[in-house]
Amino acid sequence: MNTVSKERKTQAKYTYCSICEQACGLKVTVSEDEILDIEPDKGNPYTWKDFCIKAKMADDVRSHPVRIRTPLKRDGSKYVKASYEEAIEEIGKKLKRLIDAQGPDSVGVYSGNPAGFGFANSTFQSAFFDAIGSRQRFWVGSVDQNALHLVANRMYGSNWASLQPDIDLCKCFLFIGTNPAISGMNWVGKVPDGWRRVLKAVDQGAELMIVDPRLSESAQKATLHIAVRPEQDWALLLGMVQTIFDHGWDKPEACEQANGVRELRRIAGLADLDYLSRVCGVEAETIRDVAQRFAHASTAMCVARTGPAIGRHGAITEWLSHVLNLITGRTDRPGGRFLPGSLVDLFTLDEGPNFPNTQPSRVKGRPPVAGFYSLAELPDEITVPGEGQIRALFINGGNPVASGAQGQQLDEALASLELLVAIDLMQRESHRHAHWIIPGVHFLEREELHVSAAGVSDEPFVQASAQCVEPPVGVRHEWEFFRDLAEEIGRPLFGGALEPDPKLIAQGVLARKGILTYDEIVSHPHGLIYGEKSYGHLKAALAKRGRTIEACPREFKEELERLLHDESANRGDPQFPYQLISRRRLQMMNSWLTETSGAKISGEVGDQVEMNAEDAANCNLTDGDRVSVRSAAGELEATVVVSEKIRSGVVIMEHGWGARLFDPISGEEFQEARGVARNLLVSRDDLDPLTGVPRLNGTPVDIRAKAYSKAVFCLRK
Ligand SMILES: Nc1nc2c(c(=O)[nH]1)N[C@H]1C(S)=C(S)[C@@H](COP(=O)(O)OP(=O)(O)OC[C@H]3O[C@@H](n4cnc5c(=O)[nH]c(N)nc54)[C@H](O)[C@@H]3O)O[C@H]1N2
Ligand SMILES: Nc1nc2c(c(=O)[nH]1)N[C@H]1C(S)=C(S)[C@@H](COP(=O)(O)OP(=O)(O)OC[C@H]3O[C@@H](n4cnc5c(=O)[nH]c(N)nc54)[C@H](O)[C@@H]3O)O[C@H]1N2
Ligand code: SF4
Ligand SMILES: [Mo]
Questions:
Q1: pTM (2 d.p.)
Q2: Which ligand is nearest the CA of 53, by number?
Q3: What is the CATH number of the domain that holds 211?
Q4: How far is the CA of 449 from the centre of ligand 2 (A)?
Q5: Does residue 207 sit in helix, strand or coil?
Q6: Residue 33 maps to which CATH number?
Q7: DSSP state of 281
């Protein structure tokens, strides 16, 4: 960022940060086309208390020396600048040839987290693949929140029925595998300043129970910390449900709109509490105590998130967390988890002609979640011949080689494609084999209204983003690229029924409910609270569709019964006695921002393995020792950090490190990858059977003082 020179005319622009779902309001001071400062927008009525270093440093990404500023075409090991016309013509020609010869499924897509933060980008990407007719769609949900979508779908009938925490009225929080002190309160939802609001409630006497194998930054503030065994939260929750039924602490009247409660009762009684206690590693007495506190609180909520969701039993854990809320009368109630009233009906997002694909995947035959296949299967879909084999792939705002399991296998598969198109701000690890790199547009450069995101905030709030500065000269928005490419290949978007303009589409969505117009929203640059928080919207949405809450969906019940009968699945593996989980840093956003805010993290991060102090002593290991971390999938070297804050048997490595950033013009690595790519240790065959998510948390590993072999897996070749 440049220092302000007094004579220059500066202007304040108001927008919000699109790095994470908190969508913190920003005041951006600009002069001509330069950003001089980024601060929290104190005029934002909803989010103004939230802001972090990631937004403060946002312009360093936007104006980064290796940012992609023009379409780039591969030429040997380097890239050459090309025009959009050339890119569209050449990509279009290859797509047409592939679609004609091998069918629409020969063209696939992986979309990452930031793609979803753009309304126009995500809408036009979907429309493009609808227009082609390809089912080969993969997304970040399969290394993140698939459990939420699957449970919402089966219990409430919509992939997008995301129930928000009603923090200010809650007297008892049960947080499972979430660390909002660092990550914020977001997971298909927006609760600005959520963590501080939780702490305020605690100051006023609320209970805060946090279930986490690590005494996380959040758990340090809890009234009770429960250091569960990784991936076994389901047993803790089942024990609580059982205790509540056994003592008659449930609220049958709260389940009047639910189906399957009797079956739930039966299944909750199948295992004895001592067994469940052994499985989750939490004393039976503690399980009873937590159940009692939760059931007796005047208001309460259970929230299960990423910790268990990216482990082996993510769906079951998410399901039981909803069951706990349901049977104790916390669903769709003040102080519990509720479906907010909003400008859009979330249930309609996956209704209608674009109802998501439900066909099992081609190679492994696994069902998609919310219409997307699991990233773990992408290498097979690229390499296994046959009808529907992917030969061209788009990677839109994602870094799947770094974010998913066994990235080296995906990396090899990507190298075998006939066409790889990366749409991003930078060329990262996942884009190294790209034939074409297409510029992404930074969030500070786009004006748009994310109408679907407006449906998941805990208060009726809406804000359109403002264009603070122009994109680099000539750069088209991602949606324009999809529009132009669709035209090139003669496949009209939206079946030709809608004009391909994101503003008109957003206006159409708003008109369905008729609460606010686009112009009214844009005329409030700080955002607008347009009503009072209200309840009962889940009930209304279900009634409108003539359905009830499904308390005990068949697949979940069957999987739970299977787990209860499979004692071996719940024992550790003597070959790999530790379980590896993950950790986030405030400065980083998954695998990006290493180049800006993440770069400010001092010391050697990203190649550390944190270990329980007793475990370390038993292995004669101490701080600073170099060790080999080995799993069934791979092996890495790391430095030991001894910690008193981790449950015995659990080790921690941060994800997001160890991936490279390239300068495409020179073909060189711009920045040495820091740390190791710990997801290389995660198998892409060992998945949550319901969500298709690999065990990014809970990976069985062994730790040894010296390397097992000289061949250490890493992404470099
Ligand atoms: N600074 C920062 N903020 C972020 C992000 C970021 O990368 N950096 N990412 C954003 C994104 S994309 C997301 S999805 C959200 C995620 O936000 P959260 O849902 O809060 O997830 P995490 O921050 O990963 O915290 C998960 C916690 O679960 C614990 N854990 C691991 N395994 C288990 C388990 O098996 N059981 C239990 N009970 N706990 C377990 C970990 O120790 C950790 O403390 O954060 C968002 N916010
Ligand atoms: N072990 C382990 N693995 C994990 C997790 C974990 O907790 N532990 N967390 C998981 C979670 S929650 C998530 S969300 C995933 C993330 O997985 P991904 O979404 O695949 O990866 P990101 O690291 O978020 O990469 C985002 C990419 O988008 C680019 N980008 C940023 N803004 C824009 C834009 O406006 N337009 C375009 N076109 N591109 C943009 C960035 O430069 C970057 O290359 O990782 C998952 N992986
Ligand atoms: S990255 Fe930071 S500033 Fe941006 S929305 Fe998230 S919490 Fe807010
Ligand atoms: Mo995520």
A1: 0.96
A2: 3
A3: 3.40.228.10
A4: 22
A5: strand
A6: 2.20.25
A7: T
